[in-house]
Amino acid sequence: MKKFAMIVVFACVGMSGVAIGQIPKVILSDKTGWHKIGETTVDLTKETDEVVVLGADRFASIKFKVEDQAINLQSAEVVYESGENQNVTIIFNKKDEGYSRVIDLNGGERDLSKIVFVYKTLPNADNKKARVELWGLKTNAGTK
Known about the structure:
Blueprint: H1 2-15, E1 22-24, E2 26-27, E3 33-41, E4 48-52, E5 54-55, E6 58-59, E7 61-67, E8 71-80, E9 85-92, E10 98-99, E11 103-104, E12 110-121, E13 131-138
Parallel strand pairs: 2-5
Antiparallel strand pairs: 1-3, 3-13, 4-12, 6-12, 7-10, 7-11, 7-13, 8-9, 8-12
């Protein structure tokens, strides 16, 4: 019931225009494997952004995918539903599109609340913005 209420609240906030840039995606599947958690278009004037995790939010690892424009991902703060945080150095200095390294979450598969990441945009002639996707790995460890 708690998760359903949170989904409704986040959906209303997203519709009100507060979460501009982020395209929330509710994860419904608990199948083992990689799932797209969410995506956002990063602003060339900011240096932090976040992806809120909704639905079946239990993951063991995460990774970022950068498209449309290269950026330097520097670090991320993983916020768990328990209120704990995990700070991670990413150092993704790729001048092309692609995936970051896989980041294992502390304690194995855990419920996520949001991921806040720090980045720097790289100069580009077109002032294009980058699209950043967040992917999560479900291992279903400990399930019957």
